[in-house]
Amino acid sequence: MIPVFLADDETLIRVALATMLGLEADIEVADHVGSGEELVAAWRRRGDAGDPAAVAVIDLQLPGIDGIETSAQLQRLTPGAGTLIVTSHGRPGYLKRALAAGVRGFLPKTTSAATLAEVIRTVHRGGRYVDPELAAEAISAGDTVLTAREADVLEFAADGSSVEDIARRAHLTQGTTRNYLSSAMAKLGVSNRYEAALKAREKGWI
């Protein structure tokens, strides 16, 4: 059996995913939690978490530490740990950061349960899988000048949201949100957050 740990702050999605994966004959959902910190704690508690064959399926955007940092912490606990990221924000910058952090799978949340199960098996065997469309976008977009959090707030700013709304959606304080927005605007050479979001989107960074 492949022990699988899930982390997603959307309870309905997480429970549904755990149920679907539980139907696979060779997959055991060892635990499912709502944050990166909880996942790291569950990984520590579970005796077989030290086995590199265990696989963690992690949502990219989590309250507190994000999915990539969560993966990095699991790698420190268990070198070579099998981690994969699922996301509705498949930006090239995130993919590159994830691969640099040792993530072995990266796929969108639109992926079918059958494909996800197969990717889990691939990661369990020591292989890698990156969604082909996301990989092509990453290659064409080039390197981003934005940090992951700057890209986050710009994506939320693209629809004209207020700083308060952006902060809430990004799980940040308003002061921190303003700092990220200001930094992103300076890097992109624009005068407001909406222009910054448009420019970043044109370049494929959000």
Number of helices: 10
In one word, what is the shape? Answer: globular
What's the CATH class of the largest domain, please? Alpha Beta
Q: What is the arithmetic mean of pLDDT?
A: 88
Structural class: alpha/beta
Write a concise keyword list for the protein shown above.
206 residues, alpha/beta, Rossmann fold, Arc Repressor Mutant, subunit A, 10 helices, globular
Topology diagram in text:
Blueprint: E1 2-7, H1 11-22, E2 27-33, H2 36-45, E3 55-59, H3 67-77, E4 82-87, H4 92-100, E5 105-108, H5 113-124, E6 129-130, H6 132-141, H7 148-157, H8 163-170, H9 174-188, H10 193-202
Fold and architecture overview:
With 206 residues, the chain is of the alpha/beta class. The protein folds into 2 domains: 139 residues, Rossmann fold (3-Layer(aba) Sandwich), CATH 3.40.50.2300; 55 residues, Winged helix-like DNA-binding domain superfamily/Winged helix DNA-binding domain (Arc Repressor Mutant, subunit A). It is 52% helix and 15% strand. The chain is built from 10 helices and 6 strands. The chain has a 6-stranded parallel beta sheet with strand order 2-1-3-4-5-6, sandwiched between helices. Helix 3 links the parallel strand 3 and strand 4. Helix 4 crosses helix 6, helix 7 packs across helix 9 and helix 8 crosses helix 9. The longest helix is centred in the C-terminal third of the chain and has 15 residues. The protein is globular, with a radius of gyration of 17 Å. The N and C termini lie far apart (38 Å). The mean pLDDT is 88.
